[in-house]
Structures are given as structure tokens and as C-alpha cells.
Amino acid sequence: MRYRKKPVVVEAIKWTGGNLDKVEEFVGESLIYDYNDSAWQAGEGAPFIDVKIKTLEGEMSTSYGDWIIKGVNGEFYPCKPDIFKKTYDEETGGMNFGQALELLKSETPIAREGWNGRGMFVVYQKGYPQGIQSNKQTAEAWGMQEGDLFRCEPYLQIKMVNGSHAMWVPSINDVLAEDWHGVEKA
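-> C-alpha cells emitted (186 positions)
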């Protein structure tokens, strides 16, 4: 399942004690676990698995019911159920464009789940309403002298799959989509 911590989407899995295979697949090399069978050997109960996660702060233990969260930069960390419930909402399909536009205005980049290209996102550029000195390329394009004052209204800009950037206007499909989400600034 995926969950939203406004405005960023993260992935998480709940450690139930019975889903070690799914936790291993989710966490990968950041998972450390030991079978603790001392109680079982003493005849006091069944063996259990002690799960720890390698985090940016070092190894952290998890208990049954804890959530294991994959951060926006690929790091993992455990989270107690009560904190998880207060912090995250289950993602049920994303935001509409109006909601995404509000994120843009608050300087949070946005992207769509439905875009085919990985790493694409849109930012809000404040423009230069007071003007900025034009460079040679801008001056030539607009019939100005290099260094003349060039005014530019706010606009949207997209990071393309190939890493370049372009001014962007949403398509009808983008405007009507419900799969928008905020992305972490790089």
C-alpha cells in the first residue's frame, strides 16, 4: 500500500510478524533479522523474529504492528502505529489538478502517476515581473539589445525525462486527471 504524508507520497509496509517475505522484499539489504529461539528452547514459547532496519541514524528495532517506511530518498525507518496513523493518509488515487496547483503555488513540485516518463515533474516559476537583463539569446529572439530589461510573467516549467527543462502548459488530460502528487525537491 502507498500512503501520503502531505504533500509527499511514501511507501510503507506494516510488520505483522507473519509477513517476513514481504518485508524482506520491501526493505532489501536494509533489513537485519535474527531468529530469537531462546524462549522456545527453554520451553517457554515459540521462537520469534527480531527485526531491525538499517536507517540513516543506525540500526532501529521494530515491533509487531510497526510500520516500515521508505523515505523519498530510498532510506528506511520504522514508525509506531499511533504516529503513523496521525501522520499519513492512505493514498486513494492522488489529487486533482486544482489541489496540485495549490501545492505548486506553495513551491512544492508536482507530478502525475500517469506520466510514462520517470523523474518528470512540474515547478512554478515566479518569472521576472520587475524585469531582468536579457542575455544574447533572449535579446536576439525578441529583437532587443543584449542587457535590455526583459519582463516575464510567472509560468510553469517541466523537467523532462532527458533532464532538460521546458515551459509547460497542462493538457486537457492533465487538467482532468486525479493522479497528481507532490514530489520532494531534488
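The mean pLDDT is 83.
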